[in-house]
Write a structure and sequence with these properties.
The complex is a heterodimer of chains A (about 210) and B (about 270). Chain A has a single domain (about 5-205), classed as Orthogonal Bundle (MetI-like fold). With about 210 residues, chain A is mainly alpha-helical. Chain A has helices spanning about 5-10, 10-45, 45-60, 65-70, 85-105, 110-120, 125-155, 165-175, 180-205. In chain A, helix 2 runs parallel beside helix 9 (about 180-205) and helix 6 runs antiparallel to helix 7 (about 125-155). Helix content of chain B is about 40%, strand content about 25%. In chain B, helix 6 (about 130-140) packs across helix 8. The chains are: A mainly alpha (about 210), B alpha/beta (about 270). At the A-B interface, helix 6 and helix 7 of A face helix 3, strand 6 and helix 5 of B.
Chain lengths: ~210, ~270
């Protein structure tokens, strides 16, 4: 069976898996951004907390993804088989690139600009929201872009714990020793990653000021 | 309200008053004794005066500037701004009443020229139309055509233009005091001398109280109504520009010889 024939025969199933995959990634990314960006803003002025936070986020990243899914299954409330566990694992993976870029972006601002802001009577909150954050935004977005591409890839493994998505075809293809079935999952996943990368790169370029 | 007569009385004497001010930092806790950056500073700046703090790098002149708008707080001594100790001022209110200009302008790269100049009025929640009028007025004042420059960003300006925007921004909310930290230091000699002359004219028209930091004696002689010379965190000389070069102090003479002027010769 050629990959093309398989693709045509199963196009509806592949489409549904692609939508499920995107949903998984979007939910995980939304949660990861909602945690990592505010956390990065919070640790900018708190060096003690910074080391702990970035350290913990790095540890999550070092755990092999299949192992992380496995570890989470027995954990009460967030664990079990299915999408919820997969989302938790994907969020843990996406945290580090976003957190690190948020921190680096917010702290890498020209000290003369920050001093001018302070000397002109801006409050700490105004300096954060009107100076640091807009200037850090391209760097934060670069972190989100990296995290999104990683998450699209790692999400294929989520099928191993019953979360669905394009990984379903890959695992099935491996079991059937069928390249056609593997490609039915791998090609759409790769295309998703490329599309996300290009779109976010374009947004990043628009935000860059100098 | 009872404070008021006393405050205005102090204002009449001097707008900024340092009394025996010492500021020091602990370089490293292990090294023990804190290192004094400035010590025993007593200095008054009268209303409308352009006081130039002159000194070598590391002499403590920028530190004195930062003590005025409470970017730094002294270990001992007192700094009165408009009759009120900086430690009693709300730092935000204090700073909005003191225009601040630094080298390279310190402009916000993500703001347009108009947004940069209008920053303090925006923070003070002026009406947008009033801000726009004020921005045009100030750009014209510093020699930039508002139609041409308002919507540019700092990276589309030359060094001299950025510095002009920096001055306009500092003047935006019409603060009674301006502090300037080597504002023309990064410019090429020709542009620097143009800006110095223009700023000199501007300063005499605006009648602001100005504290100006420089290591350039020529600039000090051109702009100052009084020059205060700092050496290793202490005031070693204070004089009107026309008398400054006659002072018999080795540091004054060191500066004079850097200028290629005979010590003791009139300015």
């Amino acid at each position: 069976m050629s990959p093309w024939t398989f693709f045509v025969d199963h196009r509806e199933e592949i489409f549904e898996a692609t939508v499920a995959h995107m949903t998984l990634v979007l939910i995980a990314m939304a949660i990861a951004i909602a945690i990592a960006v505010p956390l990065g803003m919070y640790i900018v002025q708190r060096p003690a907390l910074r080391n702990i936070t970035l350290g913990v986020a790095s540890v999550f990243q070092t755990i092999p993804s299949l192992a992380l899914f496995g570890f989470l299954i027995p954990v009460p409330f967030i664990g079990g088989i299915g999408r919820r566990t997969a989302i938790v694992a994907l969020v843990l993976y996406a945290l580090l690139p976003i957190l690190r870029n948020t921190y680096v972006g917010l702290t890498g601002i020209d000290p003369a600009v920050l001093q001018a802001a302070e000397a002109m009577g801006m409050t700490d909150a105004q300096i954060m929201w009107r100076v640091r954050f807009p200037l850090a935004l391209p760097v934060i977005l670069a972190g989100i872009r990296t995290a999104t591409v990683i998450t699209i890839g790692v999400a294929t493994i989520a099928a191993a714990i019953g979360a669905g998505g394009l990984g379903t075809f890959i695992f099935r293809g491996v079991a059937m020793v069928s390249d056609a079935v593997i490609l039915a999952g791998a090609i759409p996943a790769a295309l998703l990653a490329i599309a996300a990368d290009l779109i976010l790169a374009a947004v990043e370029r628009r935000l860059k000021v100098a | 309200m009872n404070e008021k007569p006393r405050a205005s009385q102090a204002l009449a004497e001097s707008t900024i008053q340092f009394t025996d001010v010492t500021y020091s930092v602990n370089r490293k806790p292990a090294q023990g004794a804190p290192q004094a950056i400035v010590s025993g500073i007593s200095l008054g700046v009268g209303a409308g005066e352009t006081l130039v703090l002159l000194g070598r790098s590391g002499s403590g002149k920028t530190t004195l500037l930062k003590l005025i708008n409470r970017l730094l707080e002294p270990q001992s001594g007192k700094i009165l701004v408009q009759g009120r100790s900086t430690s009693e001022w709300d730092p935000i209110r204090l700073r909005r009443g003191i225009g601040y200009v630094i080298q390279e302008g310190g402009l916000f790269p993500h703001f347009t020229v108009a947004q940069n100049v209008g920053l303090v009025p925006t923070l003070e929640k002026w009406e947008p139309s009033r801000i726009a009028t004020r921005v045009d007025e100030l750009l014209t004042l510093v020699g930039l055509d508002p139609r041409q420059f308002s919507s540019r960003r700092p990276n589309e300006l030359s060094g001299g233009q950025r510095q002009r925007v920096g001055v306009a921004r500092a003047l935006a909310a019409d603060p009674p005091i301006l502090v300037m930290d080597e504002p023309f230091g990064a410019l090429d000699p020709v542009t620097r001398s143009e800006l110095q002359k223009e700023f000199g004219n501007l300063a005499s028209r605006l009648r602001k109280t100005i504290v100006f930091v420089t290591h350039d004696l020529r600039e000090a002689l051109l702009l100052a109504s009084r020059i205060v010379l700092l050496q290793a965190g202490r005031i070693v000389a204070s004089a009107k520009p026309q008398e400054f070069l006659r002072i018999d102090h080795p540091e004054v003479q060191a500066f004079a010889s850097s200028l290629g002027v005979q010590p003791g010769a009139p300015a």
